[in-house]
């Protein structure tokens, strides 16, 4: 026996690094989807490690819904500057201003991200697009490959997925097609937090308990803001909350929490009886197959 | 090696109660959270069922829910205080053999499910063949629906005896049989009160305690180069150590050139180390600045790989279009992709989807191969259609 054992975090890290390096070896113009959420922050950290001491051979892409938490945008810009990265932005607001996309009646902009993303991918000729999706998040994502081929409309066809065996990823694609790559496929929410704690990775403050003006809608605490809340009859109150996921402000809910340190967050998640999407994402509650339908259309 | 995670695959169909078994494992190990249960309860009511249908936990695609079958591989994650699990939940029907092959390729254990009322059927033999072909180290035969045969020992034993013959035929190293009722919960998480004659562990107990495969760090060094990192004038060869432990100062051979050199430095993700172990992702500096590139294989220690352009292998064909003798394809082995010509298909003219067979290929460049029986990573390859990039066939090298 070698007497050496790899912890599960080391094994997940090694697997993710292998995926990043495969993409670097087989693609011309990869990009990392970077929202400033914890999963994309983790992806960036793993990419930096995968190519150390050299620079990462990828740029970043933020699909900007216009409904951002200011703390997250500030964090994004700081990280980009610190590592000398190139940031592309695909702004949903531009599409609304030009009349290409229309604001939805529920005010949610998450489903509006697909078109700006797709057009940016086409315009910049990105051939590999890293997403922070994890299979433990949602049942349609549980069926996703690590390398997932998309046509020129970014569409996902679950019945025509390529079989993916061993760690032999197939990145072949025709011009105009691209491959979505999910290096965190095998991570769980708890793994993500344990790794963030181990590596002492800085996160936007909103992931930790703080006092905030919120109002209740659909069983979640939403932040008041210009995007359309609160409606008449919805009352604003100050509560101690934190965010488990970071997305569009209009459909990402905060949870009651006093977890103001990473250790407390980990205990909170370990004891939680709700999944992170179930607790905090209004857009996934629309129907049984809400995520599958959005993925088919090119969502990440 | 990673001791605290078990990757396993389940094979069986809804008729065998596979999704119910998986749902039961997740539910009884308390891995299903409240909002997921609520969603299942709602969906079950919409389908006119009184009790929550646990199969709905795993059948994630619209088509699967509509047809009540599992079509694609779903990966599930759960943990008990003893171990973490990654479950590849694969469909059982023969027309989805390719999905089972996919799930089995990374599994250290496979659960083959049979219905106690039907015993070993054609589909069970196919599952045993796939587990044998993919060299899944551990196999569990779960004889389900024991409640529907009065929990009878003779029924169980007759099925075990029948399966043993198949296991031997398909080269399974052995298997562990467990009588269960997924619906009633017998021997899934808790030992059954209805089968006093069975003294073995419940399924989850077995999964928690079964030893995981041999330590890859004890095998000869195999290091396929993924990517060359240039930092100033220095070239670091980046890759994942597939097997063995690599030390600074080790004499290594680079294939296919056959040149030998010495390991000058190793880093694990930016941190210098004296020694690295499989399956770490590392960067390696070699003593001479040689022209090493993606697709080359660095090896050390006894048991050199076989360098050859003539590849013989067992295969499972995965694509709807057939594979024919004379086809020109791409072959991806570790990090190397080469052109290849299909010379022979074990006497057949073509392989159809889900066919298990044998192949002989001639490649444009030599490959550094190991027997699949020795290494599931350096003995495996896929064939790719050069026209549209489709994954065609899974191959398991047979140097024999």
From TrEMBL, chain A:
Alphabetical list of InterPro entries matching this protein: PAPS_reduct_dom, Rossmann-like_a/b/a_fold, SO4_adenylTrfase_ssu, Sulfate_adenylyltrnsfr_sub2
Keywords: ATP-binding, Nucleotide-binding, Nucleotidyltransferase, Transferase
Enzyme nomenclature, EC number: 2.7.7.4
Location of region: Disordered: 281-300
Keyword GTP-binding among UniProt keywords: no
An example Gene Ontology molecular-function term: ATP binding
Keyword Cytoplasm: no
One BP term from GO: sulfate assimilation
Record PANTHER family: SULFATE ADENYLYLTRANSFERASE SUBUNIT 2
Family: Belongs to the PAPS reductase family. CysD subfamily.
Listed name of the protein: Sulfate adenylyltransferase subunit 2
Species per Swiss-Prot/TrEMBL record: Streptomyces griseoruber
């Amino acid at each position: 026996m070698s007497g050496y054992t790899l912890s599960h975090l080391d094994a997940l890290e090694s697997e993710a690094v292998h995926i990043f390096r495969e993409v670097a070896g087989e693609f011309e113009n990869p990009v990392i989807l970077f929202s400033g959420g914890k999963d994309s922050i983790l992806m960036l950290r793993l990419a930096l490690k995968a190519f150390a001491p050299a620079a990462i051979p990828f740029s970043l892409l933020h699909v900007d819904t216009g409904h951002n938490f200011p703390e997250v945008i500030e964090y994004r810009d700081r990280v980009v500057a610190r590592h000398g990265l190139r940031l592309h932005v695909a702004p949903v607001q531009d599409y609304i201003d030009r009349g290409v996309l229309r604001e939805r009646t529920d005010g949610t902009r998450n489903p509006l991200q697909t078109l700006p993303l797709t057009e940016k991918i086409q315009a910049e000729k990105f051939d590999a697009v890293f997403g922070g999706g994890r299979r433990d998040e949602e049942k349609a994502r549980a069926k996703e490959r690590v390398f997932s081929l998309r046509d020129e409309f970014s569409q996902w066809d679950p019945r025509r997925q390529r079989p993916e065996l061993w760690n032999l990823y197939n990145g072949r694609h025709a011009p105009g097609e691209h491959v979505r790559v999910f290096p965190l496929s095998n991570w769980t929410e708890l793994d993500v937090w344990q790794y963030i704690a181990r590596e002492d990775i800085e996160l936007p403050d909103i992931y930790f308990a703080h006092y905030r003006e919120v109002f209740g809608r659909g069983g979640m605490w939403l932040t008041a803001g210009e995007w359309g809340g609160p409606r008449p009859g919805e009352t604003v109150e100050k509560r101690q909350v934190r965010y488990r996921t970071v997305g569009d402000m209009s459909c990402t809910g905060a949870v009651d929490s006093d977890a103001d340190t990473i250790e407390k967050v980990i205990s909170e998640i370990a004891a939680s009886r709700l999944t992170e999407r179930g607790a905090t994402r209004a857009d996934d509650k629309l129907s049984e197959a809400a995520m599958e339908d959005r993925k088919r259309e090119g969502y990440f | 090696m990673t001791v605290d995670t078990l990757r396993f695959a389940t094979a069986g169909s809804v008729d065998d109660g596979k999704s119910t078994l998986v749902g039961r494992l997740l539910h009884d190990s308390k891995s299903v959270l409240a909002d997921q249960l609520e969603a299942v309860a709602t969906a079950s009511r919409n389908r006119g069922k009184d009790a929550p249908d646990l199969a709905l936990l795993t059948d994630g695609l619209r088509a699967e829910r509509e047809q009540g079958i599992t079509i694609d591989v779903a990966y599930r994650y759960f943990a008990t205080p003893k171990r973490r699990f990654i479950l590849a939940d694969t469909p059982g029907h023969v027309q989805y053999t390719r999905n089972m092959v996919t799930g089995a390729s990374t599994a250290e254990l496979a659960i083959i499910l049979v219905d106690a009322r039907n015993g070993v059927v054609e589909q069970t033999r196919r599952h045993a063949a796939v587990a044998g072909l993919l060299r899944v180290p551990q196999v569990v035969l779960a004889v389900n629906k024991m409640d529907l045969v009065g929990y009878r020992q003779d029924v169980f034993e007759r099925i075990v005896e029948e399966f043993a013959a198949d296991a031997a035929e398909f080269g399974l190293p052995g298997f562990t049989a467990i009588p269960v009722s997924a619906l009633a919960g017998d021997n899934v998480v808790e030992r059954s009160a209805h089968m006093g004659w069975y003294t073995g562990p419940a399924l989850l107990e077995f999964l928690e305690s079964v030893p995981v495969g041999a330590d890859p760090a004890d095998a000869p060094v195999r290091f396929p180069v993924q990517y060359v990192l240039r930092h100033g004038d220095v070239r670091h060869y980046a890759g994942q150590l597939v097997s063995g432990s690599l030390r600074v100062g080790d004499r290594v051979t680079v294939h296919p050139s056959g040149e030998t050199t010495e390991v000058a430095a190793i880093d694990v993700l930016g941190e210098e180390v004296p020694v690295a172990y499989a399956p770490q992702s590392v960067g390696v500096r070699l003593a001479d600045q040689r022209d090493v590139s993606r697709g080359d294989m660095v090896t050390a220690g006894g048991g050199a790989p076989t360098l050859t352009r003539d590849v013989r292998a067992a295969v499972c064909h995965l694509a709807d279009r057939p594979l024919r003798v004379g086809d020109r394809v791409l072959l991806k082995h570790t990090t190397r992709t080469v052109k290849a010509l299909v010379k022979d298909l074990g006497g057949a003219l073509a392989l159809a989807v889900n066919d298990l067979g044998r192949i002989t290929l001639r490649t444009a460049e030599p490959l550094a191969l190991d027997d699949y029986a020795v290494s599931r990573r350096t003995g495996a390859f896929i064939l790719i259609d050069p026209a549209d990039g489709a994954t065609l066939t899974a191959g398991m090298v047979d140097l024999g």
